[in-house]
Every structure is written in C-alpha cells, then in structure tokens.
C-alpha cells in the first residue's frame, strides 16, 4: 500500500489537524510516514499545504513528485486547483466548494467550477453545510477528512483512532465532536466517492 | 519499541534532551523555532534551561558559558542567525569547548520564510568545525548524541545543519535511551579560553593540526557511505535530504554508484573512489553548491554536474522532480497548472494592531513630499503589500533604525523606522543609541504586540521594559510616546506621529496592543 496525499487550504483553516490525524492513524497501523508542513509567514492568511506520504514500504522523499498524488484534500476550491500538477492520472480531488476570498483578484466561482470539472475524479461539496447540519461547525476540517477517508488508504477505524490521539489532550467533548464530524463527512459519500 | 511521529525539529529536540543537554539557547526563527519550543514543553526536560534569548549572539555565548563549566548545550537558529552569532561561533572554534556544544542552523533554500538562502555549511568550513547534515528525521534524532560525543572528543563545537524540509516534515521515530546530564567539570588547559593573540595563535595551530584527524573521522563515519552500482557512466554524491530524492528516483535501487554525505569535512577517500570509478559525477545538495564548488575547484573539472552547470537549478531547494530531471529521467505530469489559480500572499491578521499603525502612518506621511519608511523583520513587514504599501525597506534584523539614521544623516526627512518589539531588543537597541548620540532627526515606531509574533508567539525579551530601555539609551522622556493602536485612538496616534516627525531629534512612538493571535489563544485557554 502507498498513498500520497496533498492537503491544502488557507492558513488557519485546519489543514495541519487533518495531517496530524492521518499521520497518527498511519503510525497506529505501523505504516511508514512522511509529512511536510508549512510554518511561519504563510500561515498568516496565505496558502498552506501539507504533503503526506504513507506506505507499507520505506518512504524516501518528504515531497510528493509531480503527477503522483493519489488524492488532493482541500478546504478551499482554488487551493485544490493549485496542486493539480501533482495529481496522479486517476487521483481524486476532494474539496470544499466554498471560496475563501481574502484577495482582491480572486477568480470567479464559476471558472473554478469549470476548471475542477475538467478533472476526471472530483468530489466538490458543501463541507460547511454538512458540519452545520451535524452541529460540528468547529470541525469542518474533520468533516472533509471523513468525506475523503476512502481515498487515503486507511480504514475508518484507524482514522478514528487518529482522531482520538490528536484531540485527546483537549478533553472528551472535543474528541466526540470530531468523531461525529468525521462520521458526518463519511456519510456524505456513502457508497464511495463519485463525481 | 517506543515510536513517535515527530517533526525533524522535534526529533532533534528530543535527541538533544536524551543526549543530556543542560540548556538550549535560541532566538525564534523559521524553520528552527520548534526545536526550542519542544524542549520548553517536554516533561523529560524540566531540568533543562530553555528560556528564549534576546538574539543568536547572546544565545551562542551563553551556550559557550555552559560548555565552559562542563555541561552540554545546544544553540538553535535559522540560517541568518549564524550571521548574528558568527563572532562568537568562529571564536569558539578557536578556544575549543569543554562540555559538548552543538550549534544547529536551519537553512531555508527557496526562502520560504527568509530574505536569502545562504548555506550554513560555509560557516562550518570557515570555522573548521565538523558538521552533520541528517538525511532523515530518524538520523537527525540518532545524530544528536553522536554530535555531542564528537564535540567532546574533538573539543570543538559541532555544526548541525538542516534545511526546511527536514525541519518541518514529520516521520515516525524510534527512540533511544536517555543519557544523564554532565556534572560540572573544570576545563583542561584553562588558558585556551583567553584569546589573547599569543594564545589564539597557539590554539589556531592546534585546530589546524587537528584537521587530518577530523577528516579521518568523517571518512569512517557511519553517516557517510559509499554504495556501489552496476552502471559506472554516472556517480552521484548526495548530501542530507538530497539522498532521499536520489533514492526516490529509483524505487528498485539505483544503478549508479553513490556517496551519501551526512558528515563533514567531506569524506575525501569515498569521493576520490567515486570520481575514479565513474565517468561523470552528479552532485545533489539542498542549498548552495558547497560540495560541488570544492570538487570543481578553480579550474572547473568538466566531469562534474550539478547546480553550477545547469543540471540542477542554481537557486532554490531540491525536489524529487528537479533531481529526476538531473538524472535524465522523465516527469509524468498529467494535469497542467490551472490558469485560474492566483497567488494568495500572507497578510496581517484581521484585528492586528500593526494594521492600525500603518493606516495612521500612511495618512500622516502623505502630508510630506518625500517620506521614507525603513522597516524591519516581522509580521509588520507585510505592510509592504497592498492595501498598505507602507514601507520602503526590509533588510535584516534591526536595520530599520540604523538605515533611517544613515538616510537622515544624508538629509532625508521624514526618516521613519518601523520595528517590532522583539526585533528591537534583538538588534535595534544599539542602533538607537547611535541615533541618540548623533541627535538624528528620526522617528522610530516601536510597534509592540508583547510577543515574537511572526514565529508563533514566543516570549519577547523586552516586554514592559521599552520605555525604560529607550530612556536609558538617552531618548528624551517627552519624546517616548505610548499609544494603544485601536480605531478609537486614530486621531491621537496621527497627532503624535505628526508631532514626532516634526521634532528635530530622536523620538520613539510605541503603539502597544497584544498580538491578536496570542490574545485568542489565551482567551481559549481561560474558557
């Protein structure tokens, strides 16, 4: 098993928490992991991304090669598009459809939709809507992970272990909220990812 | 066996804790900050001194003091911090050390969060100290204790060099045993610590005399290796994380013989063998062409490929893609870059006090024909971007005050300096004294958010001391003006700025309001 995952979004959206959950889940499964993060200046409202590589075999490079990502998981549609040069031929894009507009030259939403539609495997959805419905608005990022969970090469059980490990120091209430968020996301794609 | 998922920085921190350090000395700087932060928060390190330092020079010197009395100390900084501590660093290689001393420099090729991509290995060569450059997070962890042992064995500081991708990438780390801290012990040869010319000359000769041994240790190090291959048309030298990109290109094993370099001085015998065995040699290194230049030499050996002949890009970090290209392999990109995607540069946070400062400053300097705003390193450097476009310069830590002074000496007015609280204590105070002594007509805006915000909210050395510091340096008390930068006080700030710009001397305006990020965090904690 090998899965190359690109996580993307805007600073402060919660990309690193998704990365941490997948990382801990992979660690619990005894897999090899490498996961890059962006720290420093970009975190102030700039674009942020994380390359996450998990495998049963040794992982050499910390960075994912062009054309090799199995999935792009994004909290923002333009940020999903930013990394498509890295997407594998049959790779998936799982993204929030809600633009985060903090720049004046942000492209029109319709153009982003058209660009995404050109790709073979895209699931773009209202992550925030699902989070609101489930009463877990503070865990939008984990709803997204739930929706993408079948594409990251780990079982739902393993990912829930990851959630418990990452959030346990914040107390049971936060853990439960994130488990609920994860399941709400997974329910949104019941039967597998479809375009 | 115990396994943890750790950033390279965290693996280094834990490696240092378990190697028995008694202190870590550092000024925050991306990508090195998480090392010290991890030690500060580690339950294993409660007896390790770990307060943030005012700058990299004070950090280096304090660590040397700890080493002097026999204990192990770690110094951490980003690459440009090496410039700040260079005086102490270079001379500590002449005096030598007592307790193990490891200097960690985190380089930032591609300048993700930096003003240049200088390569710290040049400093190590310059000072003639051994260097380590891990290729993986596990190796980084394992190397820490080795680094301290090497330091104590050779009685020299050891430079530990990493780059951004090593610092900020996580991997599962298998942990080793803890070693107790050193007891205090008197130094051997006490005179070597007094670098009077006669003693320094003796010590310098001893350092020179030791180099053959240092190279031999490097050649025999388990962190350097020669790996043979079937195809001798090409040999590869890969240092640090470049080794991973090289291996990534050949999942079933490389046909080319290769030398992995993770310890310096360069392992001469391994490289000589590779050069002899192979028709051409490709050098892969993250950062500047440090190895490549040495191999090419002045007469430019034509059988060497790398950054200097265009096989690899001259600037920027290595990637699995540019290393593939250098190896003559294809890249299998399936989807072209989307033309809809635009840049999303970072910006100051909503509610940040620096925003209020720039709004008022822009309004006031528009009243003058030719105002210049000299700024500095911190979140407020983002004032260079729209909508503010408020600053004219940002060069290095502290340069805002001294450049304003120099411009003012030449007749520039208004000459305004914008500097943050942490940068001011790091390198701004001495420049302010220069300005006071020259009665320069400059206006310093010391934008105080009570923290080192840019790197994530570390303690700032001068918090609640700035009025006293400025007064102590000789700024007249009536020209030290404190305001709270909020919308309500806009008029007050603007009046103060105008008055002080018109004042014929040094003024310091201190807009003071807590960083919105640290405020949010402390409110969350209270809940």
Describe this structure in words.
The complex is a heterodimer of chains A (195) and B (527). With 195 residues, chain A is α/β, with parallel strands linked by helices. Chain A contains 7 helices and 6 strands. A 6-stranded mixed β-sheet of chain A has the order 2-3-1-4-5-6. In chain A, helix 1 crosses helix 6 and helix 6 packs antiparallel against helix 7. The longest helix of chain A has 16 residues. Chain A is globular and about 40 Å long. The two termini of chain A are 24 Å apart. The model of chain A has no long low-confidence stretch (mean pLDDT 94). Chain B is α/β, with parallel strands linked by helices and 527 residues long. Chain B has 3 domains: 217 residues, Thiamin diphosphate (ThDP)-binding fold, Pyr/PP domains (Rossmann fold, 3-Layer(aba) Sandwich), CATH 3.40.50.970; 102 residues, Rossmann fold (3-Layer(aba) Sandwich), CATH 3.40.50.920; 168 residues, Thiamin diphosphate (ThDP)-binding fold, Pyr/PP domains (Rossmann fold), CATH 3.40.50.970. Chain B has 18 helices and 18 strands. In chain B, helix 4 links the parallel strand 3 and strand 4. In chain B, helix 9 packs across helix 12. The radius of gyration of chain B is 25 Å and the shape is globular. The mean pLDDT of chain B is 97. Strand 2 of chain A pairs antiparallel with strand 7 of chain B, so a sheet runs across the interface.
């Amino acid at each position: 098993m090998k899965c190359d995952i690109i996580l993307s979004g805007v600073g402060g959206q919660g990309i690193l928490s998704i990365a941490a959950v997948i990382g801990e889940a992979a660690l619990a499964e005894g897999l090899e992991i490498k996961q890059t993060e962006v720290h420093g200046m970009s975190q102030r409202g700039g674009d942020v991304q994380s390359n996450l590589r998990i495998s049963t075999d040794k992982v050499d490079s910390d960075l994912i090669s062009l054309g090799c990502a199995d999935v792009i998981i994004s909290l923002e549609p333009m940020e999903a598009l930013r990394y498509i040069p890295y997407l594998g031929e049959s790779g998936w894009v799982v993204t929030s459809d809600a633009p985060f507009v903090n720049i004046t030259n942000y492209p029109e939403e319709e153009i982003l939709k058209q660009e995404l539609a050109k790709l073979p495997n895209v699931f773009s959805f209202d992550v925030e809507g699902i989070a609101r419905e489930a009463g877990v608005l503070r865990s939008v990022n984990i709803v997204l992970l739930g929706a993408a969970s079948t594409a990251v090469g780990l079982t739902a059980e393993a990912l829930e272990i990851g959630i418990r490990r990452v959030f346990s120091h914040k107390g049971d209430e936060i853990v439960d909220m994130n488990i609920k968020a994860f399941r709400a996301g997974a329910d949104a794609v019941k039967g597998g990812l479809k375009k | 066996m115990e396994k943890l998922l750790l950033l390279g920085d965290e693996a280094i921190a834990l490696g240092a804790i378990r190697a028995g350090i008694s202190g870590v000395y550092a000024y925050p700087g991306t990508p090195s900050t998480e090392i010290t932060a991890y030690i500060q928060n580690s339950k294993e390190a409660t007896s390790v001194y770990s307060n943030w330092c005012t700058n990299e020079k004070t950090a280096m010197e304090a660590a040397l003091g700890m080493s002097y009395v026999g204990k192990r100390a770690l110094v951490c900084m980003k690459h440009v911090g090496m410039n700040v501590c260079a005086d102490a660093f270079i001379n500590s290689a002449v005096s030598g050390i007592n307790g193990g001393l490891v200097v960690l420099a985190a380089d930032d090729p591609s300048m993700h969060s930096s003003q240049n991509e200088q390569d710290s290995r040049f400093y190590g060569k310059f000072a003639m100290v051994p260097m380590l450059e891990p290729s993986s997070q596990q190796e980084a962890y394992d190397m820490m204790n080795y680094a301290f042992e090497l330091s104590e064995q050779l009685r020299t500081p050891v430079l530990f060099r990493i780059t951004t991708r090593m610092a900020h990438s996580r991997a599962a780390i298998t942990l080793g045993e803890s070693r107790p801290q050193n007891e205090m012990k008197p130094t051997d040869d006490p005179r070597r610590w007094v670098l009077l010319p006669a003693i320094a000359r003796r010590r310098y000769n001893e350092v020179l005399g030791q180099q053959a041994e240092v190279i031999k240790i490097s050649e025999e190090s388990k962190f350097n290796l020669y790996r043979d291959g079937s195809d001798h048309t090409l040999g590869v030298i890969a240092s640090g994380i470049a080794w991973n990109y090289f291996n990534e290109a050949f999942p079933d094993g490389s046909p080319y013989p290769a030398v992995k370099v993770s310890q310096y001085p360069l392992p001469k015998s391994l490289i000589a063998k590779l050069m002899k065995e192979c028709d051409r040699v490709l050098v892969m290194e993250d950062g500047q062409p440090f190895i490549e230049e040495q191999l090419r030499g002045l007469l430019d050996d034509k059988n060497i490929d790398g950054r200097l002949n265009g096989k690899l890009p001259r600037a920027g970090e290595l990637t699995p893609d540019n290393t593939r290209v250098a190896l003559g392999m294809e890249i299998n990109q399936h989807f072209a870059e989307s033309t809809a995607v635009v840049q999303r540069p970072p910006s100051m946070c909503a509610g940040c006090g620096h925003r209020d400062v720039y709004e008022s400053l822009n309004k006031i300097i528009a009243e003058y024909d030719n105002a210049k705003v000299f700024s500095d390193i911190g979140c407020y450097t983002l004032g260079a971007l729209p909508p503010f476009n408020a600053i004219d310069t940002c060069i290095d830590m502290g340069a805002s005050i001294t450049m304003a002074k120099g411009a003012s000496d030449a007749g520039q007015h208004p000459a305004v300096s914008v500097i943050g609280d942490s940068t001011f204590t790091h390198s701004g105070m001495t420049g302010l004294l220069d300005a006071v002594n020259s009665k320069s007509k400059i206006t310093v805006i010391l934008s105080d958010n009570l923290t080192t915000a840019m790197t994530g909210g570390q303690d700032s050395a001068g918090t609640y001391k700035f009025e006293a510091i400025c007064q102590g340096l000789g700024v007249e008390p009536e020209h030290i003006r404190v305001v709270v930068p909020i919308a309500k006080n806009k008029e007050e700030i603007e009046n103060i700025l105008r008055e002080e710009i018109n004042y014929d001397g040094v003024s310091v305006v201190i807009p003071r309001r807590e960083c919105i990020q640290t405020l949010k965090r402390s409110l969350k904690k209270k809940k």
